[in-house]
């Protein structure tokens, strides 16, 4: 993420952002990007509105346009009623909203969010998602890194799954799921011994099975459901539950983690 | 791919990666997921429109943004700052002017109170530029991570260094002027050319601020503050002709003093405050003070870059 704003220099390769090459046109690139860092770096000594004003000045928003940019930032952060609160006195959720609003207030073409939801409670995370929704509706491209697969599936038009520094799959979440793990997952709960046996039987039927903590998830179970030859059926694996396949299933299959 | 197994999937993706080649684009960021605008999600934002301002921020707007930030904070804390700035020279005048001055009548052709007065202006200028630069610089970089945020915006490291040093230089100049005021209250009678004190002070303090920023970028933990203060700042203000003239010092110490920009600042302050010592040496003093600005600025930019860019 930091290489995109010139704050880290890559060991090898060239970087192009918005069609401009980094670091030659670093400043121009940064002017057109909005960055929401992983680590909170709000200016504790300034008020909410002043934090936004510094940002407006840094991004070269002309004097006349600054008040409306700040108003937009306050609205994005839903802190319209607290412009004069010192940032240090804000709650964790408010800080995070302000941090995001600060990165979005100047109408960036490209928004870089570096694990913005790490350590957030579900409520704050949803507020953040709605902020991202607003900026997407305005036509900005959003690049978001996350370890929460569910978040990637929910928010993204396109997902790139990275494993050990390489992209192992890239595409719309629905397509990745359909292509790589099928539609439906059959999940069986039981003792470790039972689970090992279920997994073995699933694999004997050429299905992929993975341990998910206390259960085994058998992927692409719909292929058993359409069989008419009287062979193995999902229920034969044991009492379980069907659910839709998720991006997390894709991730685990691709990265080989937890795979039995 | 109808029947994916882990093996075939991995084979597929590895091929995909090699096809992609060397050129990296934004979609290749670590762990990135890419979301293109999809108007069917999310509602409109208050005051939103498609037209953005597209003005490329220049050098000046970067520096003024940094200055505005400092000024905004200062407006809230000025009283605390002003209190220390007035009290410090008062203590110096009382302790040295009356305490030590009672033993010494005249130093280097000046009444001791006059001698210490110009020393106090220089010390005030040094302290109120190098200390904030060093301490704020360290904490903003390492603890608050303010600089990371500023550099993600279109601000360059030279602009950041220049803006902060300019602010500290202005503040130090205000302290220098306040110290002249305290000196007058204590009975010092300066010449009319004393009005040049702010000019000299702002130029010198810019270099001190850059030096402070350079050390702030250099140190790795708060433990190093002691080393910088005792090893650098104390010699800078003591071995500088501030409390005593340097010509009585042993050879190496005198050489140290001659290479100390604070010494040259004090000498210039004495020239303008009392109209004494208008010799060609004045040009040497000016050259050292200005030269120190340049060297310290270059060093600060270099060390900040090393500390902030991975």
Brief write-up:
The complex is a heterodimer of chains A (260) and B (310). Chain A is of the alpha+beta class. Chain A has ten helices and eleven strands.
Helicity range of the residues of chain B? 55-70%
The CATH class designation of the largest domain in chain A is Alpha Beta
User: What is the overall silhouette of chain A?
Assistant: elongated
Number of helices of chain A: 10
Tell me the β content of chain B. under 5%
Average residue pLDDT of chain B: 83
Q: Considering DSSP H and I runs of 4 or more, what fraction of the residues of chain A is helical?
A: 25-40%
Oligomer: heterodimer
Tell me how many strands of chain B there are: 4
Q: Can you write the helix and strand succession of chain B as a string?
A: HEEHEEHHHHHHHH
Portion in beta strands of chain A: 15-25%
* Tally of domains of chain B: 1
Largest interface: A-B, 98 and 70 residues
Based on CA atoms alone, the radius of gyration of chain B comes out at: 27 Å
Structural class of chain B comes to mainly alpha
Return the structural class of chain A: alpha+beta
Task: Describe what you observe in this structure.
The complex is a heterodimer of chains A (260) and B (310). Chain A is α+β, with helices and mostly antiparallel strands and 260 residues long. Chain A folds into two domains: 2-147, 3-Layer(aba) Sandwich (Rossmann fold); 176-255. Chain A has helices spanning 26-32, 48-58, 66-76, 92-104, 122-137, 149-155, 173-180, 192-204, 222-225, 247-255, and strands at 15-17, 20-22, 33-36, 110-114, 141-145, 158-163, 166-171, 184-189, 209-212, 215-219, 240-244. In chain A, helix 2 (48-58) packs across helix 3 (66-76), helix 2 (48-58) runs parallel beside helix 4 (92-104) and helix 7 (173-180) crosses helix 10. Chain B is mostly helical and 310 residues long. Chain B has one domain (76-308). Helix content of chain B is 68%, strand content 3%. Chain B has helices spanning 6-20, 59-100, 112-142, 146-152, 157-185, 197-218, 224-238, 251-258, 261-274, 281-308, and strands at residues 24-25, 32-35, 106-107, 110-111. In chain B, helix 3 (112-142) packs parallel to helix 6, helix 3 packs across helix 9 and helix 6 (197-218) packs antiparallel against helix 9. Chain B is globular, with a radius of gyration of 27 Å. Mean pLDDT of chain B is 83; it is low at 1-52. Classes of the chains: A alpha+beta (260), B mainly alpha (310). The interface between A and B is large, with 98 and 70 residues.
